[in-house]
Amino acid sequence: MQRSARSRADQKFAKSVHQNSDAAKEREKADRAVREKTTRLRALRLAKEATDREEADAKKLAKAARAARPKGEKGATKSSAAKSGA
Questions:
Q1: Count of alpha carbons within 13 Å of 40, Cβ hemisphere only?
Q2: N or C, where is the chain less crowded by C-beta within 10 Å?
């Protein structure tokens, strides 16, 4: 029993459609993984940048506080507080 050319062509077409849909699903899965990884890395980068910005701001404030203090004055330390009798 031989199949007709049309039947063989239909089977080949159905097989190729099935393979293409499997390939498309695999591509979509890979694309989704890349998007999720990119999103995660972006969040980490933004968090690091925010932390770095806060540290830089804290350093600037500390430097400004040191600069605003009169030259002869030092910060109160335990040893200077003990010497003064406090």
A1: 6
A2: N
- pTM, two decimal places: 0.52
C-alpha span between 29 and 23 (Å, rounded): 10
Which pairs with CB-CB distance under 8 Å and at least 24 residues apart come from 26-35? Answer: none
For 31-60, give the secondary structure using H, E and C.
Answer: HHHHHHHHHHHHHHHHHHHHHHHHHHHHHH
The enclosing H or E element of 81 equals helix 78-83
**Burial degree of 29 (CB within 10 A; 0-12, 13-18, 19+):** exposed
State which H helix or E strand residue 22 sits in. helix 5-68
- CA-to-CA distance for 34 and 12, rounded, in angstroms? 33
pLDDT tens per residue across span 27-59 = 999 999 999 999 999 999 999 999 999 999 999
Q: How many residues does the chain have?
A: 86
